[in-house]
Model the fold of this input.
Amino acid sequence: MAAPDGDSDRAGSASDAELARRLDRLSRDLESEKRERAAGERLPKSDSASYALAFRLASEFVAGVLVGAALGWGLDYVAGTSPWGLIGLLLLGFCAGVVNVVRVAGRMSASTGAADGSRRE
Amino acid sequence: MEDKVDPIHQFAINNIVDLGTIGGVQLAFTNSALFMVVIVVLITGFMIAATSPRMLVPGRFQSLAEISYEFVANMLRESAGTDGMRFFPFVFSVFMFVLFANVLGLFPYFFTVTSHIVITAALAVTIILLVIIYGFYRNGLHFLGLFVPKGVPVYLLPLVVAIEVMSFLSRPISLSVRLFANMLAGHITLKVFASFILMLGAFGFAGWLGAIVPFFMTVALTALEVLVAFLQAYVFAILTCMYLNDALHPSH
Done:
């Protein structure tokens, strides 16, 4: 009685190993399939996404300069330091606009870099 | 469209019901308000009609609602993490409102709500106020760490903090101006090219023949405007998510 039991046990573990191997292969295949599909999907999306990004970069920069100008004009109006507040804060606003643009562009390249990294894994 | 071309006329605000004045400010139910009501009714009706069958295998409307839910939920989860999901109702409302306003505005004779900077600025200011208030409520004074990047030498700190504050203040402006400018410019361009057809048509048969060119331009621009309508709603919503992320996790 023990012998057939052990036999079936061994057979069971062998088929378990076989099953595990097949499951492993299947999940690997599915993974690569998913990756290929994601890579295919990324291409048609990129066109409209880059349009959105271009408009974002432009408006971020302009908004920074506008805020600087408005704050400077307000400071001059309140403190009567015309025109130095406007000049100084406009320059700072220019810096803020550049910071905005660099930040958006950096986030963009970081996200695509991360996506590439996960694809290679 | 008689003999004068007036591409701005489509943005005119008309009073439908006058509600009198309060404190010197005139109150009225305008065509803009009417379309906002239409938008809200449409969104609510669509979501209720789509979700009431609750089928395991969704029908057309239910799958549309599920797609929009998953789209916004994924967007929010990716940019603000799972604890950003508490803002899901807000972000979803903002996204659907802007999307419906943009798309409804594309119909002839319809009013484009988002082509007025008052509307987009009100939305943007609401979002930024939410970010500031919730940021202070959740993180206390740590929220101010948003303005102090790590690894900056002390002598540069005042300059950097000033620039960071300005960069933060520029957010509602870029958020509102982007949406408003896109809708305004797109609709004016469409109107101008469409009126070229009529102006050329005034020259008789040869004019109508030549009008084929602006006609195709109008068709192409309409397609572009559909793209822009969806894209700007998406950009508006994803930036809302990113700003909410700053309120949730202010560490730079």
In short: The interface with chain A takes residues 159, 162-164, 166-167, 169-171, 173-174, 177-178, 181-182, 227, 231-232, 234-235 of chain B (CB under 8 Å). The mean pLDDT of chain B is 89.
